[in-house]
Write a structure and sequence with these properties.
It is a single chain. This protein has about 210 residues and is mostly beta strands. It has no helices and 17 strands. The chain folds into two domains: about 110 residues, Immunoglobulin-like; about 90 residues, Immunoglobulin-like, CATH 2.60.40. Helices cover about 0% and strands about 60% of the residues. Strand 12 and strand 13 form a beta hairpin. The protein is rod-shaped. It is a single-pass type I membrane protein. It comes from Ceuthmochares aereus. It is found in: Cell membrane. This is CD80 protein.
């Protein structure tokens, strides 16, 4: 069957993607053909009759296959590895087309964002209050982030927020806010991505 499985990895880590068949110790890889491919069409790694027959150059030197349980090991994971992968196992010399099994997996790659940096500059001052422009920025992460904030523990919207448009490279995010500070305000900026979050707080006083 075609089960959907999800794996998470961070940039630079090593990840193992399991296949759907284990070769019994009484047999060798020579009786099999194994394809690891991504996005259905691109071959990452292929073995036939015990020999490696194909290797994608982007995976060269950082990818290997365990020859008994057929797990694909990718080290130094990159953002571009974020994709769906298929493992197809064929038994050579069997009559019915020979596909023993195939499995489809999804690899989600995460790159950590920098700790958000909050800056505040005075825009205008009066006797009662100080108008400030507050900016929050964070960079170098993946996937696309959400930016949120609180002002004295109440939710606040970064009314002018911007995320760089990047499909397979790191994202940068910036938020901007205009505030009237009357005494002391505590502002927090949070960046969320793939279940992770990074936050910074700053005390604003006039």
């Amino acid at each position: 069957g075609l089960e959907k499985k999800i794996f998470n990895s961070k940039v630079g880590e090593k990840v193992g993607l399991p296949c759907c068949h284990e070769i019994p110790s009484s047999e060798s890889l020579q009786k099999y053909r194994v394809y690891w491919q991504k996005n259905v069409t691109e071959v990452v790694l292929a073995y036939a009759e015990g020999k490696k027959i194909k290797m994608h150059e982007r995976y060269e030197n950082r990818t290997e296959m365990n020859t008994s349980n057929l797990t694909l090991l990718i080290s130094d994971v990159e953002i571009l590895d974020n994709d769906s992968y298929q493992c197809v196992v064929q038994r050579l010399g069997s009559s019915q087309g020979g596909v023993l099994c195939e499995v489809s997996l999804t690899l989600f790659v995460t790159a950590d964002f920098s700790k958000p940096n909050i800056t505040a500059e005075v825009f205008a001052e009066s006797c009662e209050s100080t108008e400030m422009v507050v900016r929050c920025s964070s960079y170098g992460g993946f996937p696309k982030p959400k930016i949120s904030g609180t002002l004295n523990n109440e939710s606040v919207v970064w009314n002018d927020s911007w995320v760089s448009e990047a499909s397979f490279s790191p994202y940068n995010v910036t938020g901007k806010l205009r505030l009237n500070v009357t005494k002391e305000d505590n502002i927090t900026c949070s960046i969320e991505y793939n279940g992770f979050a990074k936050s910074t707080s700053l005390l604003l006083s006039r």
